[in-house]
Every structure is written in structure tokens, then in C-alpha cells.
Write a structure and sequence with these properties.
With 226 residues, this protein is of the alpha+beta class. 52% of the residues lie in helices and 7% in strands. The chain has a four-stranded mixed β-sheet. It is globular and about 50 Å long.
Amino acid sequence: MEASQKRLVLYYDEVSPPVRSVLLTIAALDLKDRIEHEHVNLFAGDHLKSEFVKINPLHTVPVLCHGDELTITDSHAIMMYLCEMFAAEGDDLAVSDPVQRAKVFNRLCFNNGFLFQRDAEVMRKIFRGQISHVCSSHTDPIAEMIDVLEQYLQRTKYVAEDHLTVADFSVVATVSTLNLILPIDGDRWPRVHGWLETMRTLPYYAEANGAGLEKLRAKLCTKIDI
């Protein structure tokens, strides 16, 4: 069976920023009806159940299974794989050029290694009850990473290039989440603020990112005042 015909299954919970970045990619590539969606309720502990741990011992989402041969457990790898498999030739999301690929990978690594880690650290403390209110000691490390993103956006219209790439999906899922606890100030970060507004105009943004973001906001409101 050809790879394009094999079963694609996404294990997801849209409260997760990495999941939302993949959902944005799926929407941009018009793959929603091609992929089976299996919900894993993080707040109910579904990711810790033995049947899911067999699929992903890291007990994280998203997970993409393509047939019986391939299981991908990192959102950044999933996005690149989907683009390589399904982006049409000439599509901005296609990343066949090695220089462009390097630029996109570099921004994905920025999100994975720095930006999202700052987000995850604070969110873990909030949901574990270790933080009753967010203060500067929690937001200053996040602000440092937004400063870096502001510098990146001095060079290109979008995060990696002058056109949309999956790096934008990855970063916007994180930044929109951070915006819940550290509003993106247009005076301090005018380029990030403008880029975020541009991303919100994507026709699939509200469904692919906004819906899960609102679910996360509702959960956060039970823990802290935002």
C-alpha cells in the first residue's frame, strides 16, 4: 500500500499548544478529513493510561501514527512530516529547499527548546497548585523569549521566512498561550503583536487554535485570575 493511502491517526487534546500547532498544519494542508482524530483527555489522565503509554511511552500528545510502520511523538516532527508528505509542489508549506528547511528547523528548535519550555514550566506549576498568582518571577523568563522573537521578526515578515511556514504554527500556538498570562504588549513587542494579529486572520485559526485556547483559558481560570 502506498504511504498516501495508509491510515493516519492523530492522538490529541486541543488544550495543548503542540497539538494546536499540528491542528493548524492539518487545516492549512486541508487534511482534516484524511486524518482520524483520537481525543486524549489530558486533564482526565488519559495520557497516563496503559493503552496510550504503549503508543507513546513519553505519555505526551500529539502523536501521529501513519500505518503500522511510523509513530511520531513530537509536534515539530509531525508538522514537517505532514508538509513533506502532503504539501503540493509550489505550496509555501513545502520545504524542499535545504536553506529554507534549515530556517524553518531553526525556528522550530527555538520554540521547542526555549519558548515552549518557558510556557510549560509555568503551566506545570499552575496546574500542580504551586502558583496561586503569576508574578514577574514567572513572566520575566517568558518576556526574554518574546524579546528574542521580536528580534527574529525584524528580519522576516513571518517567523522563519517572508511567507507562512509551519514554524509560524508552532510559535503562534505557544505565544497565544503565553498571552493568557503575559499579554503581548504592542509597545514593547510591536512586531510580535502585529504578527499575532496577522495569524489570527487565517481562515482556520479560530477552529484549529482558538477553540483549544479557550478550553485552556477556562481551566486556567479555575487555578489563577487571568
